[in-house]
Write a structure and sequence with these properties.
Blueprint: E1 4-12, E2 17-25, E3 28-34, E4 37-44, H1 49-60, E5 69-76, E6 79-87, H2 89-94, H3 96-99, E7 134-135, H4 136-144, H5 151-156, E8 160-166, E9 171-177, H6 180-193, E10 200-205, H7 211-219, E11 224-227, H8 233-241, E12 245-249, E13 255-259, E14 264-265
Parallel strand pairs: 3-6, 7-14, 10-11, 11-12
Antiparallel strand pairs: 1-2, 3-4, 5-6, 8-9, 8-10, 12-13
């Protein structure tokens, strides 16, 4: 299925109106079922449904390892809009308090909906001890090359991207979506399903850094988050408490580093 659709529009060029065709990114619901019950419905761009569901469930704490589930599959082979996750008996018992919540709202979706206080987001994640480091000029080069991982953005100018790199700063996985948190879930899901999360060292995001992106990276134990745009204050607060490095492009040149700056060093220094 294409992740975009060409629609008819009108271009006003300041003097006249001209009919044109414009590709627009698609946004459709994805229903995620856990143990046969609807757990969440997320609006996302079609594609990578299994990885998306895996990354989402990992971010939510429903699964931690491949030993926690018996299957992640589309409910209907011809319809990717519903994905079912079946847990092992031991995992189902361990997270029964999550599955039995009434009116539960995603911990890692966009917004603070339904949460009484921000502290709730910090309680189950340990600070990251991984001290993987990268030269500042390498980070800038990765950001400069981000468009290489955004073919959908080239068509629609409307997608976000998330790219995960290993400690050698080689790309491990990438994904695009209309939602920045969906793009990250998809990338994390791909690395998780390949059983390579322990190798992840940096994630590059095309959007601003919000608290839910920090939480997802922390769950995946990724120590460095870099982005095009600036983070929110809550994102910096969370990253500082979790010993995660946050950085983004500076206004004129270089980088702004908001937390754990020891992981990004000047080009003249050796690693």
């Amino acid at each position: 299925m294409d992740a975009f659709k060409v629609i008819a529009a009108t271009h006003w060029d300041g003097a006249s109106q001209i009919p044109i065709s414009i590709p627009l990114i698609l946004e459709e619901p994805l229903s995620i079922f856990v143990q046969g019950k609807s757990y969440s419905v997320v609006l996302r761009t079609p594609g990578d449904e299994i990885a998306h569901a895996a990354g989402f469930c990992f971010s939510e704490g429903i699964i931690d390892t491949a030993d926690d589930y018996t299957s992640i599959a589309c409910c209907d082979a011809d319809d990717p809009r519903m994905v079912s996750v079946t847990l092992t008996d031991s995992r189902k018992k361990k997270i029964s308090h999550i599955l039995e919540r009434s009116g539960f709202i995603s911990q890692t979706s966009c917004g603070l909906c339904g949460k009484e206080m921000a502290d709730e987001f910090f309680q189950d994640i340990e600070p990251i001890s991984n001290d993987a480091a990268v030269r500042a000029d390498r980070v800038l080069a990765l950001i400069e090359n981000l468009r290489d991982f955004q073919p959908l953005h080239k068509k629609t100018r409307a997608s976000h991207a998330a790219v995960i790199y290993n400690s050698d700063f080689e790309p491990m996985a990438s994904a695009e979506d209309a939602g920045r948190h969906n793009a990250l879930d998809k990338s994390i899901g791909k690395v998780f399903l390949a059983n390579r999360l322990k190798q992840a060292a940096l994630v590059l995001i095309s959007s601003r850094i919000s608290y839910e992106l920090v939480q997802k990276a922390a769950r995946a134990r990724i120590p460095i988050i870099c982005a095009i745009s600036r983070p929110t204050e809550l994102a910096v607060q969370m990253a500082s408490g979790l010993n995660i490095t946050l950085a983004c492009l500076a206004k004129d040149s270089g980088l702004y580093i908001y937390s754990a700056p020891h992981r990004i060093f000047a080009a003249g220094r050796t690693e």
